Amino acid sequence: MKNIDYIKDWLKKNLSSERYSHSLGCAQSAYELAKYYDLDSKKAYLAGLVHDCAKNMNNDTLLDLIKNEIKEGFLSCELKNPKVYHAIAGPYIAKKEFEIDDKVILNAIRRHTIGSLDMTLFDKIIFLADKIEPNTRDFEYSKVLYGYIQDNSGIKGLDTALLKCYSETIKSLVNRKLYICPVTIDVYNNLQENVRDLLTD
């Protein structure tokens, strides 16, 4: 695997300045969440750092890469929303450019947009770190999500924060008249069944 300095330099050259700042923030938040949940914090930092490595690639380039190089491991519904192309291509870029072979990291990159019903604790941490990092995300919204984690013990707190994320994401997609992947609805419903009694607003 390439060292962190190489990875940061590549990201700085290939992402917008705001996206690079977001990536650094996500890495730090992922590190802190991993420590909180007793997971590998260094691995979480790396996953958070590179999760958006394909974000600033042209949509046509990404779609061509997905159809002609990646070819499998994605849902047809994902191709209806260009905003998630980077999550499909991200693991491919991370492996090619940074020589990252760790499946835990690659899976977390892959699942950081729409998620999946079989998300691991590590996947959830990267997903949430993407939403609460301090460099580019709304502070008050992040504060609410952190509150759910701190007020509820164990995985319940994390899942409650995730449910809040999915709720806001679905509202946003509806307001913008964008396609909602069925997986998003499935994950939302699953979280509802588990922790809806803990979501207060």
Provide structural commentary:
Helix 2 (17-36) runs antiparallel to helix 3 (41-50), helix 2 crosses helix 7 and helix 8 (139-151) packs antiparallel against helix 9. Helices cover 68% and strands 0% of the residues. It has ten helices and no strands. It has one domain: Hypothetical protein af1432, CATH 1.10.3210. The protein has helices at residues 4-14, 17-36, 41-50, 59-70, 85-98, 103-110, 121-132, 139-151, 154-175, 182-195. The longest helix has 22 residues, at 154-175. It is an all-alpha fold and 201 residues long.
What layout of secondary structure does this protein have?
Blueprint: H1 4-14, H2 17-36, H3 41-50, H4 59-70, H5 85-98, H6 103-110, H7 121-132, H8 139-151, H9 154-175, H10 182-195
Helix pairs in contact: 2-3, 2-7, 3-6, 4-5, 5-6, 6-7, 7-9, 8-9, 9-10
CATH superfamily: Hypothetical protein af1432
Strand content: under 5%
How far do the termini sit from each other?
43 Å
Q: What spatial form do the alpha-carbon principal axes imply? A: globular
N-to-C series of helices and strands? HHHHHHHHHH
